[in-house]
Design a protein that fits this description.
This protein is 40% helix and 19% strand. With 384 residues, it is an alpha/beta fold. It has a six-stranded antiparallel sheet with strand order 4-3-6-1-2-5. The protein binds flavin-adenine dinucleotide (FAD) and protoporphyrin IX containing FE.
Length: 384
């Protein structure tokens, strides 16, 4: 036990060994994730039936959601600094589910029992201990985050504008009924009690904080997606949504003097737009290069706005990119390929936002360009 802040080193002597054990043991059950998730939930609900009430009525489509989320979060132990901030924020955010401290133990025990059951005789004591240590650490950080926050667990917000900007993209403005403080670049969980009670999904806030507290969201409806479809097609002006605590590390470091590269794919533009708006309030010295990519030109839904910004602020350049539009006359390809063609970028701060696939490709490209990891900001702990 440590007296000071809880760190990975307090719990285990060798963090790389812990990572190895978590990864190695996960490969034993990875292919049985669906069944493992079913088993995990059954154990939780059997131990504490009241926990079922926290989840959406139908869980078929997203059976592995909590399980996948916990496994990803626990394994992020390899990046202690991001891990710490993320888990504290996640703990604050989990207050929206009314999670009680002792329920962390119920969930942790169910997780380890299910892993043990599915890995059969290949499960070792070392694996058991590694999952206990990592889960315990994550749970303690989440609880510490929840306890230190005296803001509401969630806010009601009224939808005051709602506009379709492309076939499956809507931009809506929400006015929280009470003060909600956040930083440009952060995201929040949203629930629509009218359309999908208890289904919370994360959306980036697309503007820098305003005096009237309103927040813009850019939402793309995914084919089978629950909440995104409702937010794009069914939500109307006047509807109430619920918004949980702001999270995310993709914020500007005002002390940095380095020039900036923004890489945004589709509605991944939202947090970047907020950061750009913040920069317009104070930037006089940093060049900002913005790469905005989509499949085709109709999905470059905010291009006119970005071009107007670039005409107003001499420090900003905007490069629009299409990956699948034969009639497009501009840059063609994936964002990461185009950014690699432009460079060199060794002295820049990077902000990357988009689908998990886009983020993975961008991180690979930036590694090849020898951009230090510490200069790259992105938020992708779960599905985007
Ligand atoms: C940090 C963060 C910020 C985010 N910000 C935004 C934002 O600003 N705007 C925005 O539109 N979204 C954003 N997302 C994604 C958002 O949280 C949801 O995942 C998305 O809207 C889908 O939710 P859903 O309920 O409609 O789909 P779900 O019900 O969760 O998914 C239903 C099915 O859709 C499919 N599916 C889910 N995600 C994808 C995908 N990305 N591509 C293809 N198929 C998929 C899966 O097969 C899944 O089974 C963000 C995600 C993260 C983690
Ligand atoms: C270390 C412990 C835990 C971690 C890392 C974790 C992480 C996460 C993450 C990342 C999500 C998805 C993001 C979101 O919807 O906000 C999630 C969802 C959720 N979590 Fe947790 N969680 C933990 C413990 C718990 C506990 C103890 C409970 C309650 C008993 C709980 C209840 C939920 C619920 C109800 C959801 C929504 C799931 C859904 O939509 O199907 N979590 N969790």
């Amino acid at each position: 036990m440590c007296d000071g802040p809880i760190t990975v080193e307090c719990i285990v002597a060798d963090v790389s060994d812990l990572q190895r054990l978590l990864k190695e043991s996960w490969t034993l059950v990875e292919e049985q994730q669906e069944r493992l998730a079913g088993n995990f939930y059954a154990r939780i609900f059997l131990k504490q039936p009241a926990i079922r009430e926290m989840f959406p009525v139908t869980m078929d489509v997203q059976r592995a959601r909590l399980l996948g989320a916990i496994v990803t979060a626990v394994q992020a132990v390899e990046d202690p600094e991001r891990f710490d901030d993320y888990l504290r924020a996640l703990g604050r955010d989990h207050r929206k589910f009314h999670v009680q401290a002792e329920q962390y133990e119920v969930v942790g025990a169910a997780l380890i029992e299910s892993l043990r059951a599915f890995a059969n005789e290949e499960w070792t004591l070392e694996y058991d201990q590694a999952w206990r240590d990592a889960y315990d650490l994550a749970a303690r950080k989440m609880l510490a985050g929840a306890e230190s926050d005296c803001n509401p667990a969630w806010w009601h917000g009224e939808v005051i504008t709602h506009e379709r900007r492309a076939r499956d993209i809507a931009v809506m403005t929400v006015r929280p009924l009470q003060q909600l403080n956040y930083r440009a670049g952060q995201y929040v969980s949203i629930e629509s009690p009218t359309h999908h009670p208890r289904v919370w999904r994360t959306y980036s806030i697309a503007n820098a904080p305003r005096a009237d507290g309103t927040m813009d969201f850019h939402v793309r409806a995914l084919g089978a997606g629950w909440l995104s479809g409702a937010l794009v097609r069914r939500v109307r002006v006047g509807d109430l949504v619920r918004v949980a605590s702001p999270m995310g590390s993709m914020v500007l470091d005002r002390r940095s003097t380095r020039d900036i590269v923004f890489m945004a794919g589709g509605t991944g533009l939202a947090p970047i737009r907020a950061l750009l708006e913040e920069l317009t309030r104070f930037n006089r010295t940093r060049w900002v290069h913005m790469f905005f990519g989509a499949r085709d030109r109709s999905d470059l839904y905010e291009l006119p706005y970005l071009q107007t910004l670039a005409e107003t602020y001499p420090w900003l350049s905007v490069v629009p990119i299409c990956s699948h539009d034969p009639s497009w006359g501009g840059e063609v390809g994936n964002i990461s390929d185009v950014v690699s063609r432009f460079g060199p970028w060794r002295k820049h701060d990077f902000f990357v936002s988009g689908s998990p696939a886009m983020i993975r490709a961008s991180l690979r490209a930036l590694r090849n360009l020898q951009v230090p990891h510490t200069r790259i900001r992105y938020d992708a702990f779960s599905d985007h």
